[in-house]
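Methods: holo model generation. Sequences were used as deposited, without trimming of termini or removal of tags, and paired with ligand SMILES retrieved from the corresponding compound records. Each pair was processed once, and we did not select among multiple samples. The sequence and 1,3-dihydroxyacetonephosphate SMILES for this entry were:
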Amino acid sequence: MRQKIVAGNWKMNLLKEEAESLASEVVNMAKDETPSDVKVIMCTPFVHLSKVKSLIGNSANVFVGAQNCYTEPSGAFTGEISAPQLASYGIDYVILGHSERREYFGESNEMLAKKTDAVLANNMLPIFCFGEVLEEREAGTQKAVVEKQLSEGIFHLSAEDFGKVVLAYEPVWAIGTGKTASSAQAQEMHKDIRDMVAAKYGQEVADATPILYGGSAKPSNAQELFAQPDVDGGLIGGASLASRDFIEISKSY
Ligand SMILES: O=C(CO)COP(=O)(O)O
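and the model returned the structure below.
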């Protein structure tokens, strides 16, 4: 059985009080409502991580993640946050390679490979994002695009390290657009991704790798998406900012 995961990517949203209210609500609701075999992760802006971590306390099924980290462990890199710093706050997960980081901050597959190493070396777990843009989908090249992102960004890992990774397929044309991939489109790509993992690491590793879908996922479509055999959960943007919507998604298996 693969781990079921619903991760919220808050992106650059919420002020201090808003973040604290949302995190408290999610922790309380997840305790009462989220099935015990589903992991709920809140990936917050750096400034909120410590507080959200303390609000989670010893909750059994809620975890905290960052949205990025730097490649180097310390030094003169003004404005950056390192993996050892995140680990020292007890952060569980780190999103890497989100399309917004690739697009607006020029993150390359090569840089992401280094960030992945940094996260794993500090005993945290990467949520590695990838996906094609609209022109690539229209040109029918989405599979090749995804294969390149995986092979350059994360397939350098040993099988043991790869076994700790969460993959998140996020077609860029579906992010924040309200235009979700159909469940058939998601399943087709997730199956291809699992086959790519199997070709690299073997079927056993592929069968154990959680592959999340991201892009306009919401309570009204999560059930159909999560019902697909190769969709193991979601990386949720907008809908993770409303506790009720986020928790409903965590119940959509
Ligand atoms: O980018 C996303 C999650 O990382 C998806 O965002 P939306 O759910 O807002 O489309």
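Residues 9, 98, 170, 175-176, 214-217, 235-239 surround 1,3-dihydroxyacetonephosphate (CB under 6 Å).
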